[in-house]
UniProtKB/TrEMBL annotation:
Keyword rRNA-binding annotated: no
Record-level GO BP terms: cholesterol catabolic process
Provenance organism: Nocardioides scoriae
Source taxonomy: Bacteria, Bacillati, Actinomycetota, Actinomycetes, Propionibacteriales
PROSITE patterns with a match to the protein in the record: CYTOCHROME_P450 (PS00086)
Family, per entry: Belongs to the cytochrome P450 family.
Residues annotated as transmembrane: none
Domain of life: Bacteria
Protein name: Cytochrome P450
Molecular function GO labels: cholest-4-en-3-one 26-monooxygenase activity; heme binding; iron ion binding; steroid hydroxylase activity
UniProt-listed Pfam families: p450 (PF00067)
Oxidoreductase is among the record's keywords: yes
Protein keywords: Heme, Iron, Metal-binding, Monooxygenase, Oxidoreductase
Length: 455
């Protein structure tokens, strides 16, 4: 790379950080100091490991659609669904289509590494392109396809727990995130995508390194680390896709490389890289959080774990209740494309709407006693943790299955599992989960042995 190109690249990166992180963080911090609820919410997620439940309640108390300084905000479950399904809003947050800031942002963005929030990612693309990308990837995540993966997922979970047998027998603490919660979903998605075993550790590192790209207000050093991870992931993915083209198999990436729509069009290189990268990263990043969050909730509510032992038919519902109470994704943003009205509030073109997924999941108008963790809750599946509308999570069925298999396997194999001191929340703020979860697996039993009879 020439000196001029290197300078241009550095200037573009500085602009992306300034426009996407430094300026918004400064503005939001100022609004928070003046009492703005949206600003206080964003700052609270940056400064605390706890979900800001009290702020959800304050926002909800102001009505279905709260007007904050820089965004419209809703914690109403019906309104969140309406916003996420509306054709009047588009995914993501933009600076607008015109003006000097928009032009600077567009120039800098063209030099950004491919990431979950850069076009042509499914997360920020709209029809007709979104429809075409999604149609090409949907079949591998259908309910029927996922059920076909259940037996293999159970094998993987059992194998990972076998690997912990010596630690369990000796009573040594293990980090469940590192040794189980992360490895289960990354192994499943890697097999779906044809990633060779020797590359799976790198993919896990890429996903962890890129996860903060969804956050707002990153410090400069963290921003550079994230972009470095995205750049490395992009380079690895290019090599992997080249291998797939040379020797296609029956995995999803091979299907994506050869897939054609009704007009005979396939995905361009950029579309293929973006779609494959998103499916690969999203296929395990949020499920790691689901498994960790679920283990903590079950540990904190032994009565609910006892109920699951008595009624194992409740496990699918329990996974939805975990997703409702401690969702892997806290919130999502949308940009209004034309003047519209939500819940009687006029929202102008260009405005940002923040949909509080975690707040909507505790809407008392929808969920009775919403702060209570209840694995038998009749409407647990009414949560919006997988979003809604055309951007509904492509891998929702896979995540539910992995959550059920993964949680059930570990608590049945180790009925006396005990979480011990040292747990740490992830530093990401949009994605919510645990980075470290130490546990003592005493009381383990051999794979295939009968579970103890309920008391």
């Amino acid at each position: 790379m020439s000196v001029a190109s290197r300078v241009e690249s550095e200037v573009a990166a500085a602009l992306r950080w300034g426009l996407g992180h430094a300026l918004p963080r400064t503005a939001i911090a100022g609004s928070a100091r003046r009492g703005d609820l949206h600003g206080r919410l964003i700052m609270a997620t940056s400064q605390s490991d706890e979900t800001p439940l009290a702020l959800f309640d304050e926002i909800r108390a102001d009505g279905p659609m709260h007007r904050a300084k820089f965004a419209y905000v809703t914690a109403s479950q019906p309104l969140v669904r309406e916003v996420l399904s509306s054709n009047d809003v588009h995914a993501g947050v933009s600076f607008g289509a015109t003006g000097p800031i928009a032009r600077l942002g567009a120039w800098a963005g063209r030099r950004a590494p491919t990431g979950p929030l850069t076009p042509p990612s499914l997360l920020v693309t709209e029809p007709p392109d979104h429809t075409r990308y999604r149609r090409l990837t949907t079949r591998v995540f259908s309910a029927r396809a996922v059920q076909g993966l259940r037996a293999r997922t159970e094998e993987i979970a059992a194998g990972l727990l076998d690997d912990l047998a010596a630690d369990a027998a000796a009573g040594r603490p293990v980090d469940l995130v590192e040794r189980y919660c992360a490895l289960l979903p990354v192994t499943v998605i890697a097999e779906i995508l044809g990633v060779p075993p020797e590359d799976r550790g790198r993919v896990l590192d890429f996903g962890s390194g890129a996860a903060p790209s969804l956050d707002l207000g990153l410090p400069w050093r963290r921003f550079r680390e994230v972009e470095a991870s995205l750049t490395a992931f992009e380079a690895w993915l290019d090599d992997h896709l080249a291998d797939v083209r040379r020797d296609p198999g029956d995995d999803l990436l091979s299907q994506l490389v050869t897939a054609r729509d009704d007009q005979g069009r396939g995905l361009t290189d950029a579309e293929l890289r973006s779609t494959a990268g998103l499916v690969l990263a999203a296929g395990f990043e949020t499920t790691v959080n689901l498994l960790g969050n679920g283990l903590v909730l079950l540990h904190e509510h032994p009565d609910q774990l006892a109920l699951l032992r008595e009624r194992p038919d409740l496990w699918p519902n329990a996974v939805d209740e975990v997703l409702r109470v401690d969702p892997p994704v806290l919130l999502t943003g949308r940009t209004v494309q034309r003047d519209t009205t939500f819940a009687g509030t006029r929202v102008p073109r260009g405005a940002v709407v923040t949909a509080l997924l975690a707040g909507a999941n505790r809407d008392p108008e929808v969920f009775t006693d919403p702060d209570r963790f209840d694995v038998a809750r009749e409407n647990a599946s009414d949560h919006v943790s997988f979003s809604s509308g055309r951007h509904y999570c492509l891998g929702a069925a896979l995540a539910r299955m992995e959550g059920e298999v993964g949680l059930r396997a570990v608590v049945e194999r180790h009925p006396d599992l005990e979480l011990v001191a040292g747990a740490e929340r992830r530093s990401t703020r949009i994605l919510r989960g645990w980075s470290v979860l130490p546990a003592r697996l005493s009381g383990g039993r051999a794979a295939g042995a009968a579970a103890p009879a309920p008391a």
